[in-house]
Design brief:
The structure holds 2 protein chains of 2 kinds.
Chain A (H helix, E strand, L loop, with lengths): L2 H17 L3 E4 L1 H4 L23 E4 L8 E4 L17 E5 L5 E3 L1 H4 L6 E8 L8 E7 L3 E5 L5 E3 L1 H4 L7 E7 L8 E6 L1 E2 L6 E2 L17 E2 L3 E5 L5 E3 L5 H4 L4 E7 L8 E6 L5 E5 L4 E3 L1 H4 L15 E4 L8 E4 L8 E5 L5 E3 L6 H5 L4 E7 L8 E6 L6 H4 L7 E2 L1 E6 L2 E4 L11 E2 L1 E7 L8 E6 L5 E5 L6 E8 L11 E6 L2 E6 L2 E2 L10 E6 L6 E5 L7 E5 L6 E5 L2
Parallel strand pairs in A: 34-41
Antiparallel strand pairs in A: 1-33, 2-3, 3-4, 4-5, 6-7, 7-8, 8-9, 10-11, 11-15, 12-14, 15-16, 17-18, 17-37, 18-19, 19-20, 21-22, 22-23, 23-24, 25-26, 26-28, 27-30, 28-29, 31-32, 32-33, 34-38, 35-36, 35-39, 39-40
Chain B lengths: L1 H14 L8 H11 L3 H14 L4 H13 L3 H14 L4 H13 L3 H14 L4 H14 L2 H14 L4 H13 L3 H12 L5 H14 L2 H14 L6 H11 L3 H14 L4 H13 L3 H14 L4 H13 L3 H14 L4 H13 L3 H24 L2 E2 L1
The chains are: A mainly beta, B mainly alpha.
C-alpha cells in the first residue's frame, strides 16, 4: 500500500464506521420482550413516577446464558393500578429471543419498583436479586431451580423509604457480599408533597432540592442469610444525601472497596473504606461539587481504569446545563475533572444522564463509554427551547488515550431519542461482545445488539471466588497481549438502578494471543493466580485457587 | 436610547468652549479641533502644553481631543491635570467622567458625574449619565432616588421613564415600575418597551415569556443598550448557552463594559475551559464593579484551575471573609487548602460548608406545599 492509499483509507475511516452500525436495535418483535414500563404518570406528578426503571443482566438458571430482569412501578401510597403491574424476568432462549418466566420464577415485585442489584450473597453459585423501590425493598433468594423466594423480612432487609441504586460488595473482606442501598429523599409517608404549579398552571415533578435529604443504608452480611445494619459509626450514617447512583470500587488501591455515590441537588459522596469505618472524603477528593463549587444533580455513576493507569477513574452524569464529569484519578485520593478534554462536557451540556457504563465495546483493549439520557421533567420543552424530554444516547470510543464522541456513527438507535433511565451491559450471545439494555420511563426497553469489534480478539472470564466472595467483586485482573499490560478491577454496581453481566471480557484487539492473565483475588484469600497463554475468543471459568 | 443621544450632545458642547487664548499655537490647535480635524489638533496642543504646562484650557481641550480619538486613558490624565488647576470646572469634570465611563471605570465615572450633578442639579445630562452609571453598578435604589423627582417634573421624558422603570424592575418593585413601562408602551411597540417587559418577566422568573420579549427587543433594535445582555440572560436561563454567548458578545461589541455580559460570558467560557478569554472578560467586569464578589470568585476559580494555589487562596480567603455565607467560596477555598496539604484549614472550611448547606436545605424544604 502506498502512503497515498494509506492516507485515503485513514480519511475514509469515519465513513466506513458510519456505514456499519456499532449497535443495532433489536425490536420487541424480534426479541420477544413485550414488557413495557408503566411509570404511573398522573396529573399530580408524583416524583417517583419520573425515576424508573432499572434493568439487570443475570444468569438466573445458571445455564451459561445471560437472562434479563426489568423493574416496574407498582402499588404505593399514591398509585393504585387498575390492572396488575409487575416486573419481568426474561429467559434467554439462546437464539436471540427471550421468554417471560416471571411468574414461574416468582419475581414479580409488588411495590413501586426502582432498580435491581444482582449478587450471590449466600455464595452458593446462584445469583440472588435485590429490588429497590419507593416502599419496601425485596430480596429474592435464588432457589437453584429456576425460582426465587422472597426472603426480605427474614434477611432483615425491609429497607424503608425511597431507595434507588444498590450494590453488592464485600466491604470487610470476610468473603461475603454486603449491601449498600442508596436512599433518595424523604418523600410521601403520611403526606404527599407537591411544589405547586408551574408556569403552565400544572403540577410538575418537583426538583429534589425541595425534599429533605436522607442517609443511605449499609448492611453487613452475617453469613447465615441475615444482614445487620452497619452504617452506624461511619460517615454513611451522618452524610445526608439524595442518592441515585452508586459504584463500589477501590480508588486508592488499598484492597478495600470504597463507594462513590451520586446525589441529586446536593454534593456527591466518596466513602473511603478505612477498614473499620467509612470516611466521607468527596470534597478533598474534588468529586463533590462542580468546578464552580456548586452541587449538581448527580444521577448515574461508574468507575473504571479508563486511562490504563492502574487506578480507578470515576464518572457522574448530571442534569442539563451542569455537564457530566469524568474524574481522573490523581493517585492520591483526589481527582481532576477531565470531561472537557474527552468531549464529554461538550456533548452533555443539554442532556440529563442516568444509566451509563464504561466498557470496551469493540474489544480493542481500551475503555469506552455509553450514556443513556432523558430529562426528568416531561414539560421541560415548554420552558426551555433547547432541552428535550426525550434525549439521544451517547457513545464514546477511546482513541489515543482520549474519549471521542462517536454517537453519530453508532447506529440508528443513536439518532433517536428516549426517556432513558437504567442501563446495563452484558453478552447475550456469548460471542464476547457486550450488548446493552436500556430501561425507558413509561415505555418498552431498548435492546442494543453489539455489532462492533469484528476481527478483534477477546477472552471472557467468569471468576469464581472460594475464600473471597463467590462473585469475586473486588478482584483485580491484569493481562498482557502484544506487549501491552492492562488492568481491570471487578467493580460492584455502576450505572443507575441497574446490574451488569458479572463476567469480564478482556479485549486484546488484533493480538492473536494473550501472554498471561493474572488474577489478584480479594481478601480474605488475596492470592495471586496467573494463567499463561490462556485460550482466546471464548469464556473461561477461573476458580480461586 | 434617548439618554445616549443626549450624552453625545453634551460632548459636542465641550468643544465649543469660549476661547481666550492669545497664543497662535493654541489658536491653531483650537481651530483644527473645532473644524473636526482632531488628529491634527492633538500634536499642536501637545506642543503648546510643552511650553505652557499650566494652561487649564489647553489641558482640558487636549483631554477632549484624546477622548474623541479613543485615547481615554490619556484623556483622563489631561483632565485630571486640568482639574488640579481649576477644581470647579464642570465641563472638564464631564469630560473626565465620560473618559472614565468609556474605559469601564464606572464607579469613578459615577463619582465624577455626581460632583457635576451636585454643582448643577438642574442639568439633565449629568443626571442621565449618573443614573446610567448607577444602573451599571447595580445601584438601583440610588437611581430610583435620583430619578423619581425628575420623572415627576418631566412626565413626558421617555428617557427618564425608561431608566427609572428599569431601576424599579431590577429592584424588584414591579408595581412601581409598571406605570413607567406603560408610559413607554403608549408610544407603540418599541425595543425599549420590549426590553422593559422582558426584564420584568425575567425578574419574575417567567423565562420563556421574557425570552420572547427580549428576542423582539433585539430584533427591533440590536444596539439598544442592555438589550443583548438581557437577551443573553434569558437564553441562558432557558438552557441555550451557545446563543447566550453570542448575545453577550454582541452586547459587549456595543458596550465593552456591560457588567453582566462580561460576567456571564466569562462563566460560559470558564465552563468551556477557555480560561484566558474568560479571565479577560472578568477583568473588564471588575473595572465596572471593582469589588464584585461574583467576579472575584470566578477569577479565583480560574486561578485554581491554573494551579496558582497561593493566589487563589489569598483571593478566596478575602472573598470568604467579606461574604461569610458564600458557600461556593468556602467549597473552593477548602479545595485549595487540601491541595496545599493544609488539611486542618480544609476541614474547617468543609465544616462551614456543611453548616451552610444544612441551613440552605432546611429553608428549601420549608418551601414545599403539603397536600
Amino acid at each position: 500500500m502506498t502512503r497515498r492509499e494509506w492516507l485515503a483509507l485513514v480519511a475514509a475511516a469515519p465513513l466506513l464506521r458510519g456505514a456499519s452500525p456499532i449497535f443495532e436495535e433489536v425490536p420487541p418483535s424480534a426479541s420477544g420482550i413485550t414488557w413495557v414500563h408503566d411509570n404511573a404518570k398522573s396529573p399530580e406528578h408524583f416524583l417517583p413516577e419520573a425515576l424508573g426503571p432499572g434493568v439487570a443482566f443475570l444468569d438466573y438458571d445458571n445455564d451459561g446464558w445471560m437472562d434479563l430482569y426489568l423493574v416496574n412501578s407498582g402499588p404505593s401510597d399514591f398509585f393504585h393500578p387498575k390492572r396488575p403491574i409487575r416486573n419481568a424476568l426474561y429467559k434467554n432462549n439462546r437464539d436471540g429471543t427471550f421468554t417471560d418466566v416471571t411468574e414461574k420464577a416468582g419475581v414479580p415485585g409488588g411495590t413501586f419498583g426502582m432498580g435491581a442489584a444482582v449478587g450471590d450473597y449466600d455464595n452458593d453459585g446462584w445469583p440472588d436479586l435485590f429490588v429497590t423501590a419507593y416502599g419496601n425493598c425485596t430480596l429474592y433468594r435464588n432457589n437453584r431451580d429456576g425460582s426465587f423466594t422472597d426472603v426480605t423480612k427474614k434477611a432483615g432487609l425491609e429497607t424503608p423509604g425511597w431507595t434507588t441504586s444498590a450494590v453488592w460488595f464485600d466491604y470487610d473482606n470476610d468473603g461475603r457480599l454486603d449491601l449498600f442501598v442508596c436512599s433518595f429523599v424523604d418523600y410521601g409517608a403520611a403526606v404527599m408533597r407537591s411544589c405547586g404549579e408551574n408556569q403552565l398552571g400544572k403540577r410538575f415533578y418537583c426538583i429534589p432540592r425541595f425534599f429533605k435529604p436522607t442517609a443511605s443504608f449499609l448492611y453487613h452480611n452475617n453469613g447465615d442469610g441475615t444482614f445487620s445494619p452497619a452504617r452506624a459509626g461511619t460517615d454513611i450514617a451522618t452524610s445526608l444525601g439524595k442518592g441515585l447512583g452508586v459504584v463500589a470500587t477501590d480508588v486508592n488501591n488499598d484492597g478495600r472497596m470504597d463507594l462513590f455515590v451520586s446525589n441529586d441537588t446536593v454534593q456527591n459522596f466518596l466513602y473511603l473504606n478505612r477498614g473499620k469505618t467509612f470516611e466521607e472524603a468527596s470534597l478533598p477528593a474534588e468529586v463533590a461539587f462542580s468546578a464552580g463549587g456548586q452541587p449538581r444533580s448527580g444521577m448515574g455513576v461508574d468507575a473504571a481504569d479508563v486511562f490504563n493507569s492502574g487506578w480507578q477513574d470515576l464518572f457522574v452524569a448530571n442534569v442539563d446545563q451542569e455537564m457530566f464529569s469524568l474524574y481522573r484519578n490523581q493517585k492520591n485520593e483526589s481527582f481532576r475533572d477531565v470531561a472537557h478534554d474527552n468531549e464529554v462536557a461538550q456533548a452533555t451540556r443539554l442532556l440529563s444522564g442516568w444509566g451509563l457504563k464504561f466498557f470496551d465495546y469493540d474489544n480493542d483493549g481500551a475503555v469506552d463509554l455509553i450514556l443513556a439520557n432523558g430529562h426528568p421533567d416531561d414539560m421541560i420543552e415548554n420552558y426551555s427551547p433547547t432541552v428535550k424530554y426525550a434525549e439521544p444516547l451517547l457513545l464514546f470510543h477511546q482513541e489515543s488515550g482520549k474519549l471521542r464522541n462517536v454517537s453519530a456513527g453508532a447506529g440508528p438507535a443513536f439518532t433517536r431519542s428516549y426517556s432513558a433511565r437504567g442501563l446495563a451491559v452484558g453478552d447475550l450471545r456469548n460471542e464476547g461482545r457486550l450488548d446493552v439494555l436500556i430501561g425507558v420511563n413509561g415505555g418498552p426497553p431498548v435492546l442494543l445488539r453489539n455489532e462492533s469489534g469484528a476481527g478483534n480478539h477477546w477472552l471472557g472470564l467468569k471468576l469464581e471466588g472460594v475464600k473471597c466472595n463467590r462473585d469475586a467483586v473486588g478482584a483485580r485482573i491484569r493481562w498482557s497481549a502484544a506487549g501491552v499490560v492492562r488492568t481491570r478491577l471487578k467493580n460492584g454496581g455502576g450505572s443507575y438502578l441497574s446490574s451488569h453481566d458479572p463476567r469480564e471480557i478482556l479485549g486484546i484487539g488484533k493480538a492473536e494471543r494473550i501472554d498471561w492473565v493474572e488474577i489478584t483475588w480479594p481478601k480474605p484469600g488475596a492470592t495471586v493466580q496467573r494463567i499463561q497463554n490462556p485460550p482466546i475468543d471464548r469464556y473461561l471459568t477461573i476458580r480461586e485457587g | 436610547m434617548p439618554a445616549l443621544g443626549r450624552r453625545r450632545a453634551f460632548l459636542s458642547l465641550l468643544l465649543a468652549l469660549p476661547l481666550f487664548a492669545q497664543d497662535d499655537l493654541l489658536r491653531q490647535a483650537v481651530t483644527l479641533h473645532q473644524s473636526g480635524n482632531i488628529p491634527a489638533a492633538i500634536p499642536v496642543y501637545e506642543k503648546y502644553l510643552a511650553a505652557h504646562p499650566d494652561s487649564a484650557m489647553a489641558l482640558s481641550n487636549l483631554g477632549a481631543a484624546y477622548a474623541h480619538v479613543g485615547r481615554y486613558d490619556d484623556a483622563i490624565v489631561q483632565c485630571r491635570r486640568a482639574l488640579k488647576l481649576q477644581p470647579a470646572n464642570p465641563p472638564v469634570q464631564m469630560n473626565l467622567g465620560l473618559a472614565f465611563y468609556k474605559t469601564g471605570q464606572i464607579d469613578d465615572a459615577a463619582a465624577t458625574f455626581d460632583k457635576v450633578h451636585r454643582a448643577a442639579p438642574a442639568e439633565l445630562q449629568p443626571i442621565l449619565l449618573l443614573g446610567d452609571c448607577w444602573l451599571n453598578m447595580g445601584a438601583n435604589k440610588k437611581v430610583i432616588d435620583l430619578l423619581t423627582p425628575v420623572a415627576a417634573q418631566r412626565p413626558d421624558d421617555l428617557a427618564i421613564a425608561y431608566m427609572l422603570g428599569t431601576a424599579l424592575i431590577r429592584d424588584d418593585q414591579p408595581t412601581r415600575g409598571q406605570p413607567f413601562v406603560d408610559r413607554i408602551l403608549r408610544n407603540g411597540d418599541s425595543a425599549e418597551a420590549r426590553l422593559l417587559l422582558g426584564t420584568t418577566k425575567l425578574q419574575a422568573g417567567d423565562n420563556p415569556a421574557a425570552l420572547a420579549d427580549l428576542a423582539k427587543a433585539v430584533e427591533l433594535n440590536p444596539r439598544l443598550p442592555h438589550a443583548q445582555s438581557y437577551y443573553g440572560q434569558a437564553l441562558l436561563r432557558t438552557g441555550d448557552p451557545a446563543h447566550a454567548a453570542e448575545a453577550f458578545r454582541k452586547a459587549l461589541a456595543g458596550n465593552p463594559y456591560d457588567f453582566t455580559a462580561n460576567l456571564q460570558l466569562a462563566i460560559i467560557l470558564r465552563e468551556q475551559e477557555q480560561m484566558d478569554e474568560a479571565r479577560e472578560f472578568l477583568r473588564r467586569a471588575l473595572r465596572v464593579r471593582p469589588d464584585d464578589i461574583l467576579v472575584r470568585f470566578q477569577l479565583a476559580a480560574i486561578e485554581l484551575h491554573d494551579g496558582k494555589l497561593e493566589t487563589a487562596r489569598r483571593d478566596l480567603e478575602s472573598i470568604a471573609k467579606q461574604a461569610p455565607t458564600y458557600t461556593e467560596a468556602h467549597i473552593t477555598l477548602a479545595t485549595v487548602y487540601y491541595r496545599l496539604q493544609r488539611k486542618a484549614d480544609g476541614d474547617r472550611e468543609r465544616e462551614i460548608v456543611r453548616k451552610l448547606t444544612a441551613e440552605k436545605q432546611a429553608k428549601q424544604a420549608q418551601g414545599l406545599n403539603v397536600k
